[in-house]
């Protein structure tokens, strides 16, 4: 499974995030929330995880089926409904020659990507002192 580490070295909100696989990024908050906008905000990272899994899963599926997905991108947006419930809407775009049946199948597959399932089902989160 995945493992990341976040390091805070100052009093601002910018943090260095590194993965066990050797990748790094910076997270921060926008100025309106007291940050310096040095990196993606936490909810942007949340959406980025879902978008990445969406793109990878659909590309893998299309290749397995021999479908030409072409240039693909997904737009994800989060919001809260009137009751305060968090919602994510995902819009998919591909310029490959996909017919309606193929699109229907891709929209079905995207509902079951690994990250989609964890986000929909929730995850047990525990904390401890190091």
TrEMBL record:
Stretches for region Disordered:
1-34
Biased-composition ranges, Polar residues, are 1-27
Pfam families in the cross-refs: OsmC
User: What protein am I looking at?
Assistant: Osmotically inducible protein C
């Amino acid at each position: 499974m995945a493992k990341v580490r976040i390091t805070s070295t100052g009093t601002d909100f910018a943090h260095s995030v590194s993965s066990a696989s050797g990748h790094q990024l910076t997270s921060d908050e926008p100025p309106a929330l007291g940050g310096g906008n040095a990196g993606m905000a936490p909810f942007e990272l949340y959406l980025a995880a879902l978008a990445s899994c969406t793109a990878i899963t659909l590309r893998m599926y299309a290749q397995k089926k021999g479908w030409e997905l072409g240039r693909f991108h997904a737009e994800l947006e989060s919001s809260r409904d009137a009751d305060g419930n968090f919602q994510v809407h995902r819009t998919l775009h591909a310029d490959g020659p996909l017919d309606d049946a193929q699109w229907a199948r891709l929209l079905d597959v995207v509902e079951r990507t690994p990250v989609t399932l964890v986000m929909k089902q929730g995850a047990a989160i525990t904390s401890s002192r190091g």
